[in-house]
Write a structure and sequence with these properties.
Shape: globular
Radius of gyration: 19 Å
Helix content: 10-25%
Largest sheet: 7 strands, antiparallel
Distance between the termini: 42 Å
Length: 201
């Protein structure tokens, strides 16, 4: 099934669908007292997008309006795309970033940015796009962002799955998979990637 999405959220293709249903049963309770079946949050769905793949750091940075070191301070459900309630609809996730350093582009450090990303399928399953896990509070990372906002909703999106690297000490974690650029940039470490971005013409 292909989702064609209008707006900053990329078009995606469902690669797998999974949902988990759990029956709550206590063997010590009589059958008349057993709770009815409850539904847990659906398992994440791996999806692939048609976002362009960049061959080098210079290309990725050139495709971005700003590159920042930032921490996620909040996430919340965002907007719906597609037919409301339809199987092909998705809901976005709003991610609030606290910018600690601007590595490339023009904006003041200390600014709070709103980033929109693919969030959930119609049945509430979290979306993992091109191997990039959903953002979570306290994620510290280097973000390559594109400004797609307007006066009503000033937002950014990550340039692609190649454009977010979470920081763990000085190590970096990019999107899962075999993307050569993600592997190359992750291997630089946080300080190395930051220095490489600053050094770009």
């Amino acid at each position: 099934m292909r989702w064609t999405v209008v707006g900053p959220v990329a078009a995606v293709v469902v690669a797998a669908l999974a949902a988990l249903t759990i029956a709550a049963v206590d063997d010590d309770e009589p059958r008349s007292a057993v709770a009815t079946t409850t539904t847990a949050e659906p398992a994440p769905i791996e999806v692939a997008s048609d976002a362009p793949r960049r061959a080098s750091l210079a290309e990725l940075a050139s495709a971005s309006d700003v590159v920042v070191r930032a921490t996620v301070v909040a996430t919340e459900r965002g907007r719906s795309f597609g037919d409301p309630g339809g199987a092909a609809s998705i809901e976005s996730r709003f991610v609030t970033l606290d910018v600690t350093e601007v590595l490339r582009g023009s904006m003041p450090a200390g600014t709070t940015l709103l980033v929109e990303e693919e969030g959930w399928s119609a049945d509430g399953a979290p979306l993992i796009v091109d191997g990039l896990q959903p953002s979570a509070v306290d994620d510290d990372g280097i973000w390559f962002l594109v400004d797609v906002g307007d006066d009503d909703l000033p937002t950014f999106v990550v340039a692609s799955a190649q454009g977010r690297y979470l920081v763990h000490g000085d190590a970096l974690t990019g999107a899962a998979g075999d993307d050569p650029l993600v592997a190359e940039l992750s291997a630089l470490g946080a300080s190395g990637l930051a220095a490489a971005v600053r050094a770009l013409p």
